[in-house]
Amino acid sequence: MFTVEQIEAAHAKVKSGADFPDYIKEIKEFGVRSFQTWVKDSQTEYFGENGYSTKSQPKYDELMIENKFDKELFIKQLKSHQRGETDYMKFCKDCAETGIEKWIVDLNQFTCIYYDQSGNEILTEEIPH
After folding, report:
1. In the predicted model, what is the mean pLDDT of residues 13-36?
2. Which InterPro entries does this entry report, sorted A to Z (predicted)?
């Protein structure tokens, strides 16, 4: 079974979106199968085999998630983050500003799906592996 501490140690190596694929590979080796991250405070629930789950504590003061979604701006900011131009906190602020409430990563499918506050799938991305 994996721990939040193991996952957070792996996440500490991530300086930008460019480091995300290596992070995903590392936590998959721990046994993480999927996780859900809430933009408002970066609280994340991690899921493993046989119904195992664990949850992190909030990482920052709550952000206000905009009610109106701006897909064009979100994609622009996401691409910037993936090129290594922004850090994690900036990415979370960008998500909140463009109406993203959460994302769910599936480590079996290597996908990251972003959702708005109504639970609509906004964007599904494949994670390089």
Report:
1. 90
2. DUF1398, YdfO-like_sf
